[in-house]
Amino acid sequence: MAGDLCSARNIDIMHEEEGRMSAIADQTMCKTFHDAAGITSYLGSADNINITGTLMELTMPGHHLDPSIDCTVASCVYWDEGRRCTAKAIEVTGMQANECQDTNCRTFERREGGI
Description:
two-stranded antiparallel ribbon, 2 helices, three-stranded mixed sheet, single chain, alpha+beta
């Protein structure tokens, strides 16, 4: 989507290594990521498109997409019970990504004491 915004209805942020909690942003990933390299990619993610939010973002100045964010990275200061992210906004990097493991949640900040 224009403006480097994600048009997903729900964004899933996870730790990259199974059974090991993230200590740095590079150990996180956006599980929602789909490589935008063809029609099959778009069809594969069609069930998670925020159609209403996307249309409002494009036609109503000042409107924001506001997807829900499901996060399993309990070592982050923004993680809350129920796998909820409390950050006002998140930044996910991975412009050259081919798969979700190539992405990172740059909003990640390690919780004091870790987990």
